[in-house]
Amino acid sequence: MIEFQLDPRSGLPTYLQLVHQVRQALRLGLLAPGDQLPTAREVVEKLAINPNTVLKAYRELERDGLVAPRQGLGTFVERSLAGAGSAAHPKLQRELSSWLAAAREAGLDLEDVEALFRAAVRDSFAEGVA
Amino acid sequence: MSAIETDRLERRYGRRWALRDCSLAVPAGRVVGLVGPNGAGKTTLLHMAVGLLAPTAGSIRVLGGLPPRERPGQLRRVGFVAQDKPLYRGFRVADMLRFGAKLNPGWDQDQAVQRLSRLGIPLSQRAGQLSGGQQAQLALALALGKRPELLVLDEPVANLDPLARREFLQLLMGEAAQGGLSVVLSSHLVADLERICDYLILLAAGQVQLVGDADDLLAEHRMFAGPRDQAGLLGRTHTVVHASYTGRQATLLVRLRSPAPDLASWTVRPVSLEELVLGYMSGPPPAQAAPSLSCVSEVPA
């Protein structure tokens, strides 16, 4: 089951942070169809947040067809976000790790790496839509 | 049904007004944060809601009926934790529960015992020997024991360390998640309120400055930063709640009265609840720089 975390510095409203964490877990395959989300009560007893915030996040996920409530049972995952390429994830992650190791060896710090990565992402996806 | 509804409610102590012209309607089933500087009238409002204090003028209704002071039958529907969390320090926890059961017709002893055992508070302990955090939890457990529909808390976490505060709010939110409970609490800790409240009342100098659904209020406000000599312009179409100036720059907290204007050379960003509260508490903006219309383009509403 997913365990929510809050980042007070993210600047994002709490309900959106919950939505993003579920989407992220669906994308990484940490949550799969049939899995149950924690109840509103379980979430608020851990995070000390307003129950309506959790319900709002779950409603948004429901609107996107990702989860659905089952009467008296709770909220369950309907659909995964893991794309067609998710089988390639482990290999790509290994390659990325070795690339990062090479970057650090070359003397790049976190900010350098992020700038380089963002620029590459921009180039690559701009080519894709062109 | 409203949890609390007031109409031109006023309360005076001698010659001093503690609360003036207070009209608001707080929907039921919400967690309401009551904020404002010391002496703003927060405790006065809460005491009138639970029936400890009678209004000087105007009216207040609680859960759709007269307040407990005029209709004692309402007492069983309203739970209250006072600021100093009064407990009989020499009583054992079990005695406090027995006391609660005797005084409250709707008392749920099983649930109260379960709640305390989940919190790890031993029934044999004397109230005065519990830690500050446990005393606050016990006071909350006693207020919840009567199964109130409205729970009123006056600065419940003011004297607690961060861990005890978190545990108290976890307990409170867990109860709120079960439905059928409206919560109104006052606090100075806006970061906590931002997490737990979905409705806000801001009092200052005995008057309501701001009231409404927290998300709606955040959506209606923006922080603008830009050249000081253009600051007057925003005030023409929107309400400037608070302004601060440094050299040539102005930072304005603005309540939008129409879609956000698109101003060249200004940056606009959403506000946090803390910025909203501090902006209103700091009061109205100082006299504004002379407006000049030339450099501004507005998107038609």
Tell me what you see in this structure:
The complex is a heterodimer of chains A (130) and B (301). The mean pLDDT of chain A is 89. Chain A is mainly alpha-helical and 130 residues long. The N and C termini of chain A lie far apart (40 Å). Chain A is built from 5 helices and 3 strands; from the N terminus they run αβααββαα. Chain A has helices at residues 14-27, 40-47, 51-63, 89-105, 110-129, and strands spanning 36-37, 67-70, 74-77. In chain A, 55% of the residues lie in helices and 8% in strands. Chain A is globular, with a radius of gyration of 18 Å. In chain A, strand 2 (67-70) and strand 3 (74-77) form a beta hairpin. In chain A, strands 1-3-2 form a 3-stranded antiparallel β-sheet. Chain B is α/β, with parallel strands linked by helices. Helix content of chain B is 30%, strand content 29%. Chain B contains 9 helices and 13 strands. Chain B has a 6-stranded mixed β-sheet, sandwiched between helices. Chain B has a 4-stranded antiparallel β-sheet with strand order 11-12-10-13, with helices on both faces. In chain B, strands 2-1-4 form a 3-stranded antiparallel β-sheet, covered by helices on one side. In chain B, helix 3 runs antiparallel to helix 4 and helix 4 (132-145) runs parallel beside helix 5. The relative contact order of chain B is 0.14.
Summary tags:
heterodimer, A: about 130 residues, mainly alpha, 5 helices, B: alpha/beta, disordered C terminus
